[in-house]
Each structure stands twice: as C-alpha cells, then as structure tokens.
Amino acid sequence: MCPPADEKGKAGPKPAETPFADMPAVPDFEAMAQNMGKLVEQAGKVTAAYMRPIERGEAKTGQADEASEMVKVLGRVAERWVSDPQKIIEAQSSITSDFLTLWSSTLKRLGGEQVEPVIEPEKRDARFADPEWNTHPVFDFVKQAYLLTTRWAEGMVEQADDLDPHTRDKARFYVKQIAGALAPSNFVATNPELLRETMAQNGENLVRGMKMLAEDIEAGGGELKIRQSDAGAFQIGVNIATTPGKVIYRNDIIELIQYAPATETVLKRPLLIVPPWINKFYILDLNADKSFIRWCVSQGLTVFCISWVNPDHRHALKDFESYMREGIFAALEAIEQVTGERQVSSIGYCVGGTLLGVTLAYMAATRDKRIASATFFTTQVDFSHAGELSVFVDEEQIRAVEEQMAERGYLDGARMSGAFNMLRPNDLIWSYAVNNYLKGKAPTAFDLLYWNSDSTRMPAANHSFYLRNCYLENKLSKGEMRVGGKLLDLKKVTIPIYNLATREDHIAPAKSVFLGSQAFGGPVEYVMAGSGHIAGVVNPPNKVKYQYWTGPKPEGEFDDWVKKTEEHPGSWWPHWFAWVEKQAPKRVEPRVPGEGPLPALEDAPGSYVKVKA
C-alpha cells in the first residue's frame, strides 16, 4: 500500500529515522545467551524426531520422488531457454534492468527523496503487512527484490517455448512453491516484525517455536505436520459434529447416521448425503451455527449421512465399485428399511459427488430408480478442465503414488492434506510456519482448520481408480468408464440435478462443474456460489456472507452463461431447499432414529469419524 501523495503529487514512504523504534535499545544479552542454548537443545530434539523413523525403518516414502519431479520439470523449462541464446540474453537483461532501477530508487530514498515503488505486492498479500516493509529502505529493498525475482521466474515459465500445457502448469506450481518458501518474511534476519519480536523477547519466541517444531515432526512420524489450529480446543461429538442423531448401520466401509427430527412433520422423501472420503463428513456439521446438516433437519428433512471408514491395510482392495455397493447401495437399503421409502433425494460433495455420479450412471444402466434427485456440491464428472490438483496427475506421478500405496495398502492422509495445502502455500503453510516456529505463538482454535488437519487415508484400489479413470483419462464424461461390468453413460441419467459450483474454487473450478452439467441427460439447475470449495458450500443463511448466481440452462460457453446470470445476496441454501421440496412436498410424521427396524448402534457422530490418520 502507498501512503498519501505529498504536495508535489509523488507518493512513497519516507526513510525510517529510527528503525525498530519499539525494540529495546539494548537486549538482555545474558537472557539471549541462555535462550540460544535452549534453542540448540530444542534443535537437537527436532533432529531426533526426524531421524527416529529413519532409524526404525518407518520413514515415509515419496519425498524423493516429489523432489525429483520438481527438478525434472524445471529442467525442461531451462532447456527451452538454453536452446535459444538470444532469449537467454533478453531474460538476463530484463532482470538486470529491474534491479538497476530498484537500486537507483533505493539510493534516492537513502538520500531523502520520495520515490514510487518499482513493484508492489498484491493487496491481499499479508506477508508484507508490517509498516516497516514500506518505511524502512533496507526492508523495502529486500521486499521489492523478492517480488521482482519471483515475477521474473514466473515470466520464464510463461515465455518458455514449446512446453506442453501440463508441463507448464507443473512448472508454475513448483515456482509458486519455491517462491513461497524463499519469501523474506519467512526468515528472522529479513523480517522486521520477527526481528523486533526476537529482540524484545530475547529469543524466547524461537525457543518456543523450536519446541513446537519438534512436536509437529514427532506428530507427523518424521515429517512436518504443521498445526493450523489448537487441536485441544475441539472434541468430535462434544463441541464439533454435534447435531443429534444415531448410527443405525455399519459395515467395513461406512457408518450410516440418521439425524433426529426437529420439526412436527418431515418431508416424506428422505435425504442421503454422500460426503468425500478424502476428508471427514463433519465439514457439513462443524457447529450449530454453520451446520448444513442441522439446518436441513430444521427444514423438515429426514437426513441420513454416510461416515466413511478411515481405511488401513485391510481396505487395500476396496475400489470404486466397493464404495458404490458397500457405501451408497448399503445406505439406500438401510434407509428403505427404516423409513419404508424406496426413493431418496441425494447429495454428493466433491469426490463423494463423483462417486454419486458414477453410481447414478450405473443405476441408469440397471434401471434402478431409488435415487429420485441428485445435488452435487463442487463436484467434477468431467475432468477436462480440472482444477489445480491436476498438476499432480500424469502417468509418472500416478505410478509413483501406486508404488507408495502398494507398500501399505493405502495412501497416507498427510499426502493429500499436504497437496491441498500446497495449492495455497502462503496462506496454509508459510503463514503458520512463521507464526508457530518463529513467533513462537500457538495457533488459535478454528473449527474449519481443525477439520482441514483431520486428514484421512485412501485405499489403494479406490485411489488408483479415481486418479486414472477420472483425472488422467476422464473416462466418465466420455462414456468409457466401466463399473460392475456396465459401461457408464451419464446421458442416461435423467433425474433432476442441482449442480452447485463456487466461483473461486481451485479444486473443482466453476467452469469444470459447468461443463460437467452438460454431461447429464435430464434437467440441471446450475448454481454458482461466492467464495471457494469450502466457504462457498458452508454458507449458512444467518451469516449473509456470500452471494450466489442463478441463470439459464447450462449450455454453451461458461463465460456466456455468467453474463446472463442474476445475483442473489446471502446463502443458496433456501434456494436449494425450495428445489428439493418442490419435487416431493408431501409430509409425514417424524422418524426417530433407532425406533425403526434398525436399532441405534451408538450416538452420532459415530466411531469411524474419530479414527485419526
């Protein structure tokens, strides 16, 4: 941010006359020395936590493959530039010119002149929020030098000739990771706020941070598992995932939860929710104010939700068909026993939605009509414009993942959690690394980030099928996927569909969800909500935080559809419920979980959701 313009109309920060004005003039050197000794001691514990799994032969594999892939991809970019000497000279001239301009600007500032910045961070970049990044010429120089370098590196990727799109996407991704890691805000010596904190606390912040670093490496089994929230502040079933209900069915794959009614009458047709197994279902039941499940119950829906098992080696051979039969089909049979209803409304979220789409195509092929309508939350069934996770998907990378899974029968939950965090490294990795390990501050309690760190494993057969058939080969939308001996055709799915996308989704982009809408053979209500993959879905009406857009039938090009939309303030939840209720408005007496043919096994949220990865 620039300060107000001066009387001549020139903007720019003034040189700091007294850098670190609020820092003690003379630190307590004795306390500093003692803390440095403690820091070395804690560093030894960090090393021990890292080495222990290696010495026991329990070290997790995969990091070497990832590093090798990064070197290989960036090497391809370098090859394109080296093959054209003239372009190399131009690239060197560009960065040299930028730094000469910056150096000249800094000299003027040191001489007392006010100058415009050569480059500024984006307004949403919180890394450089401390005022001294602007007011102190040294830190301003460091900041701008970093920004110029990262912009130049990004340009090298964009301007490299003859790169295939996938390689370019991967190169962009790796440059973003390197740039995030090397930011001057991540180091004590180059971050004015960290310098002030360290001097003011005589290094105690670094000792606390190193202690947390050792604990987090220990918790990650030799790999760093950055804490994003105060885990001790939450207990599943106590102050998170608390909507009343009962587990009424259990097998090797699922627990089925039936939620207790809260209205005098309920819609006759029940609702089945199919959450992703990559994460735990309680993203839809964080707390009373944010819970989509609790809200559905309050509208008079009989809600059933699948809680997937957190798999281990025993589930290695469970594939997509297993999850369809032992997951969705088993749930449908249990719901019919409990309610007497043959047909249900359904919701699928993310990969749970992809499974639901596969299941609907299979049911269409077998003339099974038990699912009368389907709602998809940020779901892809066509992966031709898949989100940023596609950078992890090609033949070589999938083969490496399959080799890792073959050793244990599953993919460790930390792998997927790490991949999601890497999509937003500055927000989900480095901000916490700085706060935790350099400032020495434990993160605050935040239910969403607690859920985000509560990762799950993936069975080998299931995950391999998903990566190959969906992300790599896009077989479902092409009509080439086979499940249970049936060739699947989404055009034969003619039931009503409510397809929710979110505008800023980097996992299931709105354009991809829009394209997937055109794969179905029946009526599709395509709705786009504000925000991203999680916040756009978990957007209760009482918050009035984001908006949503409705428009015509999802045909043609996505950008053309957007131009024809109508914006609505607030949550899309009431709009969706009106859509569901209109299809089957008849109401009946409430159903109490556990009082039907299937007795209650235990209280919601059950046992499967409490198993840690």
From TrEMBL:
Keyword entries, A-Z: Acyltransferase, Cytoplasm, Transferase
AB hydrolase-1 domain location, by residue? 299-539
Which residues are in the Poly-beta-hydroxybutyrate polymerase N-terminal domain? 124-296
Q: Where in the cell is it found?
A: Cytoplasm
Which Pfam families does the record cross-reference, listed alphabetically?
Abhydrolase_1, PhaC_N
Query: Quick one: where's region Disordered?
Result: 1-22, 588-613
* Biased composition range(s): Basic and acidic residues: 1-10
Domain of life, per the record? Bacteria
What protein name is recorded for this chain? Answer: PHA/PHB synthase family protein
Q: Which organism is it from?
A: Bosea eneae
